[in-house]
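3.2 Worked example (two chains)
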Amino acid sequence: MSAARARSRRTLLAIASALGVTTALGLVAGAGASSAATLPAPAHVVVVVLENHAYSQIIGSSGAPYINSLRTGGANLTQFYGETHPSQPNYYAMFSGKTQGITDDSCVKIGFSSAANLGSELIAAGKTWASYNEGLPSQGSTVCSNSSNKYAQKHNPWFGFSNVPTSTAYTFAQFPTDYTKLPKVSFVVPNLCNDMHDCSVSTGDTWLKNKLGAYATWAKSNNSLLIVTFDEDNRLSGNRIATVVYGAHVTPGSSSGTTYNHYNLLRTLEDMAGLTAHAGNAASAADITGIWS
């Protein structure tokens, strides 16, 4: 590489760093290399997982005004799909790139798998990870369910992995009010009512606005992202589900018609966090592109 080209490369890398931008394949890999699609490098990403509704039941629905406001102010992934049915295998897929042999919603043995996953990768890389689980009786609790709080462990795949400390599973009441204290990546799982499983779309939409609306607003000007997705559809729409992305570096009103699934989301989360490891099927999945400013 010539001295002039090396200086040019260093300048581009400095600009990218200042803008909080990274790439999945490396920026300016060398002479003659094609440009890789850029991804943001957010300080915080919060992923919220809702339940059992098809794309058409959410996007454009009068029952989901807040989610649709995130769509119009952020990005809409119009061809996003779950992997299977019922719920639990999809959660394992989005967290570890594989369903890990899970085929039903039965309570799993704690730490039954040592497979790579988003939490273990973040921890190994010295980055922060947490889940915030509504209805969880206490931090790190491994109970299967809590009917009084409508809690269900089947929506919390982190408990299935021996390489993810149970202490990183927090109650939703522990979600920081000072958003600068959020981990690099976190998942939020509402209870069985507020995730739309047992209650209406409007119930879940209102919960999302009330509980995470302030974070979404803050994220836009603080290099952070909110991602709202679903585990699966209602079994009537080919498992097509709503997924919206809102916050810094997202082009408002953008959409992507590329076919994506939870493996693409996992790969994107890994690459935005600067991880070099990729769990399961995320290793061969493409990043989500076409929505970033």
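3.2.1 Second chain
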Amino acid sequence: MLIRSKLTAFDFALYAVVVLAWGLAWIGIHFQVGVVAPAVSIFWRFLLAGLVMLAIAAFRGDRLRYSLADHAAFALLGLLLFSINFLLFYHAAETLPSGLLSIVFSLASFINVWLGALFLNMPVDRRVVAGGLLGTAGMAALFYPQFAGSPVPHGALIALCLCVLGTFAFCFANILSARLSVRKYPVFASSGYGMLYGSASLALYALLRGYEFTVEWTLPYLGGLIYLALIASVLAFTCYLTLLGRIGADRAAYVTVLGPIVALAVSTWVENFQWTAIAAAGLAAVIAGNVLVLKPRKTR
């Protein structure tokens, strides 16, 4: 009987960094929307982060020259993980509170398990189905106060769909990153190129849409940009992709379960998110469902 290896102290440290960095990042995204087009804000974020990542790679002496096939893989990673994923969530942030965005994103742990089974031949057991049902019920409970007692807001439904699509883009990027980790690409170099390719695709999208490449010269916007670029991108993605290579895409995605606890706590204070008994029960169901999905599994 094969038992999944236990997480080490280093794995837990990586978890803690990513959970805190990404949990607080949702409020940073909140301060990025409004004046500057979302695509432009994300472009600045990953242009800065990508340059910093490659500078660190050069300082470390990591390999920086790769084949065209390697760059194609980095470009696909950048498109999924650092472009489409964030663009959809930034647009959703114009309508939904940041805490609710993080709840949708937490379903990545459930989706990753199924994609791992489909693309990486990882086994799936009945607990995954039960966990998915719990997570779906919890999502419905958390969004219920947004819709109860009035016609369903059209904008909120669109924002919810954008979040789901963004989460799928993140999960497909996880599968790709898991494949790349097998080939032992240096994290700083591969992530740095991915971020620059992602920012390039965002720049093209912004140009096609006619957006101006501006910056909002306010402390909340600039502070959020610096935090998102250096802490939530350079530090957190380095830790997350390292974790993914060490323990696999399904268990690494557990950080998306713990992140909502941090994000909703901040959202309660900053955005005046209103808690109800139903919402609290929904959050508990989402967390319980994801824990059930990611509990170490014994296989014969």
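3.3 Remarks
The first strand starts at residue 2 and ends at 3.
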